[in-house]
Amino acid sequence: MNDWKQLCALDDIPRLGSRVVKSPKGDIAVFRTAEDDIFALHDKCPHKGGPLSQGMVAGKVVTCPMHSWKIQLESGEAIAPDVGCAHSFAVKLEGETVWISL
Amino acid sequence: MKKQKLVMVGNGMAGCRTLEELLKLAPDLYEITVFGAEPHPNYNRIMLSPVLAGETKFEDIILNDLAWYRDNGITLHAGKQVVKIDRKARKVIAADDTEASYDRLLLATGSSPFILPVPGKDLPGVIAYRDIADTEAMIEAAQHHSHAVVIGAGLLGLEAANGLKLRGMDVTVVHLAGWIMERQLDKTAADLLQKSLESKGLKFLLGKQTAELVAGESGRVAAIRFKDGGGIPADLVVMAVGILPNTALAESAGIHCGVGKMRGIVVDDTLQTYDPKIYAVGECVVHRGIAYGLVAPLFEQAKVCANHLAQMGIGRYSGSVTSTKLKVTGIDVFSAGNFMGGEGMEDIVLSDPSGGVYKKLVIQGDHLAGAVLYGDTADGAWYFQLLKNQQSIAEIRDHLMFGSNHVGDVGHAGQVKAATMPDSAEVCGCNGVCKGDIVRAIKTHGLFTVEDVRKHTKASSSCGSCTGLVEQLLASTVGGAYQPSDSKNKPVCGCTDHTHGEVRAAIRDQHLLNIPDTLRALGWKTPNGCATCRPALNYYLISSWPKEAEDDPQSRFINERAHANIQKDGTFSVVPRMWGGLTTPNELRVIADVAEKYQVPTVKMTGGARIDLLGIRKGDLPNVWEDLGKAGLVSGHAYGKSIRTVKTCVGAEHCRFGTQLSMSMGVKLEKMLFGMWAPHKVKLAVSGCPRNCAEAGIKDIGVIGVDSGYELYIAGNGGIKTEIAMFMCKVSNDSEVLEYSGAFLQLYREEAYYLERTCHYVARVGLDYVKKIVVEDATRRTELYERLLYSLQDYEDPWAAAVAQPAARREFTTLEVA
Question: How far is A61 from chain B (nearest CA, A)?
């Protein structure tokens, strides 16, 4: 099912930061938490399409730089009272290598 | 580990709020059991008046539904009254013999209405006004009877009277004192209020003492008789003459309780009773001799009590300052503090009887001691804050009466009186939230603070200019329960209980140098903070320990990380610095070349006299900078909480009126301040003569050239709320302009809270304070100035740095996947 593609080294993504991945499915934001968990979301805030990749990461949440919606990295769901969801993509870390499945 | 057992007796607002706070802090510490005498889950008692008035239904005022108890694993015994506490065996016993043992017991038994000890007090048709059962009895009575008498013209009595009138009854309010709400209003305001209530059809009998309630043929109450002999018909009597803390259960268990005026379960600053295993909160307690009957103080108690139950042990309750707000639709009354005045106090009064406005401010020395507002309560929250913080009003005394909103506010069509706005009127111009949306959310979600309203509606969550209106809506919807936000003791964000001031002090005193250490040292509740606190911490670190602290790019907003301003489509705008607003043909040529080469869609002049290139893709930024850098252009920091621009007029260089060389002064200032990070953005202007073409009157520092030197103005602002800069001092030459301006800005950098503009900072500490340090104290001025220069020395243009360091380019490049 999962068609894993090698993406980058873990250290290519800053801790508590993200990188943008150009893909056939549009821009994807790949996030790295303080604990080195990796998550990937469609790089568009469900609110007004702001680039989530440019937001600030804390815990497992990214805050959109446009209007400060808070989006959960695991599910892509906005935190209440805001309602909406950014599509999430499967990612995995093997050793120091990050893999993504579109 | 086995969970400890927490039992709560009383299922009301104070108790449930304590549980909510506790569950936030320590969700798994206790197995919780709750006993409530009423057969309902916890509901919003202060919304009973709107239920009575027919504006809201009971279902809408439930705060914690049964699912909440279930979801949090709380055992609820609704409708079971606890009759005994066995402290030795550590258990409570209910009337139906249900037992529950405890490790910690929380008493939240509330209060009971005081019933006048007069003959006839037990007749059918005589009720108090306390719970939903009373409210339903009143609604029922209104359907079958016509004459209602409310005894007591306090807050609750007037709200009951108003509700019964709206239900179609003929209502008379009987009151012992000479004017209504005598505990909250002076006579003038009370008379205005009475007149307004009379125009709604209520009748008043003042100075009347009840002697007896008389039964009619059916056995139901039929009339009320007074001590002076008179009487009126009454087939519903509502007693609203005060409340008594419920202490019987605690007393029977031997827990110390106060009597008389100090009646209540006695608690200390940690909300513990004389038995340390037993806590108490709410209307049943007396703390430092005061029993509170308003919701706001009870919530403060709940927070502290939860902190101790969660074994964190850092909260302390030291009493509350309360304010009063009547919730009768269409009438605005506010009072707080000592509103009667007295010896050693002065009153400032504004009285416009036919306009329906009365305001009295009571002043003691340099402080506001109390306030009564009638008709226009827009500034109630502001006065309350001044009162609570004991802030000096010496400098604003002459315009104190006109409130905080009398000039310059934008974003809500000049509206400053929420009560007169229709439901469809837009309150929050940023997020498009109307009055009706906010009021509905307050009622149905049980909101009490501006923070709550922000969370639920988004109103006041962007630029904040409508905060005053939202405060008014809260005040008029929930009345006395509204808790104006405590700006002085406000935590930085939800991640901590520490205030900005405490965090700054800790970073300085403990020599903290990075964010993880700071979070650990201050016991942050979240592992990496959030988008609100991290930028603040980062600023406090780098400003307290320049050249030592780590500047964490991931704790900066994207604009400061990418050295450009993000736009709505995700592209960026680039503003090269033009020192003092000056440029050259070569710079313009390079800018034009860049605009063409990178197909910049929009080129615009900014308000700060420089050129903005809008619509640049993030990946192009380093190349754009590299090209601009060839002509010597550097970052304009149009994106930062930092020095922005120094705007200048032409000045004596060319202008026939100019007295000083304003352009060169501006350039000197801007060169000195290059790379200065600050709590918020900082803008300066220099004008060469008092005609002030550089508009220095609305800048953080405005410099005005006069023949004999320069006048320095500080703390102006041209933003959400226009603030006129205030005169700080006069200096005689350019180097003094640099020194005094630098010292003021360093003081601001060291003492202001993150996101506080200079106008907010100076409003907080006072202009006199700033003058004492910057103008009158030469030693401190020099030290401040030197510290500023030290932290700015060797600052490198961030654009040049990003171009030079390949590692920094990672921020601007993307990854690919097929």
Answer: 9
The DSSP H or E segment spanning A21 is strand A17-23
Alpha helix stretches (DSSP H) within B630-661:
none
Cβ(B400)–Cβ(B348) below 8 Å: yes
Provide the pairing of β-strand B572-574 with B611-616.
antiparallel
pLDDT at B330 over 50: yes
B558 contact residues in A (CB cutoff 8 A)? 54-56, 65
Q: Which of B578, B586, B593, B491 is nearest to B532 (CA)?
A: B491
Among B531, B554, B815, beta carbon nearest to A17: B554
Most A-contacting residue of B458, B495, B817 (CB-CB within 10 A), to test interface: B817
Query: Using an 8 Å Cβ cutoff, are B285 and B302 in contact?
Result: no
Residues B20, B25, B31, B35: what is their CA dihedral angle, to the nearest 10 degrees? -20
Q: Say if residue B734's pLDDT is above 90.
A: yes
Q: Is A58–B570 a contact, with Cβ atoms under 8 angstroms apart?
A: no
pLDDT, position B207: 94
**pLDDT tens, position by position, B463-507:** 777 887 888 888 778 776 676 666 667 889 989 989 999 999 999
> B570, B628 in Cβ contact below 8 A?
no
Which one is predicted more confidently, A37 or B490? A37
Work out the average pLDDT over B796-817.
Answer: 88
The C-alpha of A52 sits at a distance from chain B's nearest C-alpha, in angstroms, of 10
**Residue A74 C-alpha, separation from nearest chain B C-alpha, in angstroms:** 17
Residue B84 to chain A, least CA–CA distance (Å): 42
Spatial distance between the Cα atoms of B579 and B588, rounded to a whole number of angstroms: 14
CA of A30: which chain B residue's CA is closest?
B815
> Would the CB atoms of B566 and A65 count as touching at under 8 Å?
yes
In this prediction, residue B247 has a pLDDT band, given cuts at 50, 70 and 90, of very high
pLDDT, chain B, mean:
91
Nearest-CA distance from B52 to chain A in Å?
30
Give B231-289 as a DSSP string. EEE-SEEEE-S-EEE--HHHHHTT--EE-GGG-EEEE-TTSB-SSTTEEE-STTEEETT
Residues of B in contact with A34 (CB under 8 A): 527-528
Residue A90 sits at the chain B interface (C-beta within 8 Å): no
**A59 and B810 in contact by Cβ < 8 A?**
no
| A23/B531 Cβ within 8 A | no
Could you identify the residue written with the tokens 């001044």?
A: B386
B residues 429..468 contacting A (CB < 8 A): 455-458, 461-462
Asked if A22 is an interface residue toward chain B (Cβ–Cβ < 8 A), one would say: yes
Q: Which two tokens stand for residue B674?
A: 């290059």
Residue B139 has pLDDT above 80, yes or no: yes
For this complex, say whether ipTM is above 0.90: yes
Q: A19 is written with which tokens?
A: 């990188």
Yes or no: say if B31 and B4 are a contact pair by the CB < 8 Å rule. Answer: yes
Is the whole model's pTM more than 0.80, yes or no? Answer: no
Give the pLDDT of residue B488.
Answer: 65
pLDDT digits (tens, 9 = 90+) for B70-123: 999 999 999 999 999 999 999 999 999 999 999 999 999 999 999 999 999 999
Strand A70-72 to A88-94 pairing: unpaired
Strand runs labelled E in B376-479: 426-428, 433-434
Q: Tokens representing B698? A: 């609305």
What is the three-state SS of B321-386? Answer: CCEEECCECCECEEEEECCCCCCCCEEEEEEECCCCEEEEEEEECCEEEEEEEECCCCCHHHHHHH
**Which phi and psi angles does B784 have, rounded to 5°?**
-60, -45
pLDDT digits (tens, 9 = 90+) for B770-783: 999 999 999 999 99
Helix (H, G, I), strand (E, B) or coil at B599: coil
